[in-house]
Write a structure and sequence with these properties.
Distance between the termini: 33 Å
Largest sheet: 9 strands, mixed, barrel
CATH topology of the largest domain: Lipocalin
Low-confidence stretches: 1-25
CATH superfamily of the largest domain: Calycin beta-barrel core domain
Helix content: 10-25%
Strand content: 25-35%
Mean pLDDT: 89
Number of domains: 2
CATH class of the largest domain: Mainly Beta
Order of helices and strands: HEEEHEEEEHHHEEEEEEEEH
Number of strands: 15
Shape: globular
Number of helices: 6
């Protein structure tokens, strides 16, 4: 039996760890060892989500589509929608496309006529980078990548069912719901908070998770209700919760079908069950999120891992406003 959870198309954390400025792009598309550098003229700047593009024409008359990150991330790096206008002369550096028939490159940096160079910070540099002390789980949080290598090493060794392996073999990027602006379900939606933070709001009756990625919101009911048979299945499932001393326990079932819920190129099944346990550290400098994923159709045994969360009180979540046309362009 093979043991593998492969990298998936639109949120390549394997690539993100190697080059975090290139997160959310398939490593199969671009050759990071080849850099194309050219003077060019801007034709159009598309400041959109989940990806932004600059269409340019070089001195030989060739047109290039320069792909970069989302408008959300670019704003956090000091970019804005009016930075580049048609006719502007720029010099770009970008990674080559592995398919020579495609004119799409992945942008590393762009220098304007005034000599100002724009690039993307590494993911951690977009945020405070300092130890912020939280007094509760309420507030804005991002996932720290410091233990991602260990997590993904565990994913790579996790046993899958034969059916999951068959789905992996037949997977194509066009199958990924993210290309249709359909977000990942939990816990993957939590994991991408290393780029797109999440906000936790607490009350006596419920907890709300607001994820910047695709403007996703999850409600966790704390009023003692259970999971009722026949509950409609939704993308984020139906969540009930409870407090175990200082730990928030979130219990989610009734997930809708998703073709790529864990970046493993295999679907989720109707029996998918996720338990999340959130605990603030004693000194308030971090929180932990313990994840347990059960999916007997595709996982031979439950998948367990732990995320480290950092408080970001100075970050305001932006509207993601995913553009389906732009999202689909990724797989073209």
């Amino acid at each position: 039996m093979r043991r593998i959870i492969r990298a998936a198309p639109l949120a390549m954390l394997a690539m993100a760890l190697a080059d975090q400025g290139s997160a959310h792009h398939s490593p199969a598309q671009y050759d990071e060892s080849i850099v194309v550098e050219k003077d060019s003229t801007v034709i159009r700047f598309e400041f959109r989500n989940p990806h932004s593009y600059i269409l340019v024409r070089d001195s030989d008359g060739s047109e290039w589509m320069l792909e970069t990150s989302s408008a959300v991330r670019l704003r956090r790096n000091g970019w804005n929608k009016d930075m580049f206008s048609p006719g502007d002369v720029i010099r770009f550096r970008a990674n080559a496309n592995r398919n020579p028939e495609k004119n799409r490159l992945y942008l590393n940096s762009v220098t304007d006529a005034a000599g100002e160079t724009y690039t993307l910070l590494d993911d951690g540099e977009e945020f405070s980078g300092s130890a912020t002390v939280a007094t509760s789980l309420e507030g804005v949080w991002r996932v720290d990548t410091e233990n991602f290598g260990q997590i993904y090493g565990g994913f790579a060794q996790h046993p899958l069912t034969d059916e999951a392996l068959q789905f992996q073999d037949s997977y194509d990027e066009a199958m990924d719901p993210v290309a249709e602006c359909i977000a990942y379900p939990t816990p993957q939606i939590v994991m991408v908070s290393f780029i797109y933070p999440m906000k936790i709001e607490l009350s006596d009756e419920q907890v709300t998770f607001h994820h910047e990625f695709f403007d996703t919101k999850r409600t966790v009911f704390l009023d003692g209700r259970g999971h009722s048979p026949g509950t409609p299945r939704t993308n984020q499932g139906y969540s009930i919760g409870r407090w175990e001393e200082d730990t928030l326990v979130v219990d989610t079932r009734f997930f809708a079908d998703h073709r790529n819920p864990m970046m493993g190129d295999f679907p989720s099944g109707p029996a998918r069950h996720v338990i999340e346990r959130y605990t603030l550290s004693e000194d308030g400098t971090y929180a932990t999120a313990e994840m347990l994923v059960e999916d007997p159709d595709y996982l031979e045994e439950p998948l367990k891992f732990e995320l480290i969360l950092r408080s970001e009180p100075n970050v305001t979540l932006q509207s993601f406003d995913c553009d389906p046309e732009i999202a689909r362009r990724f797989i073209q």
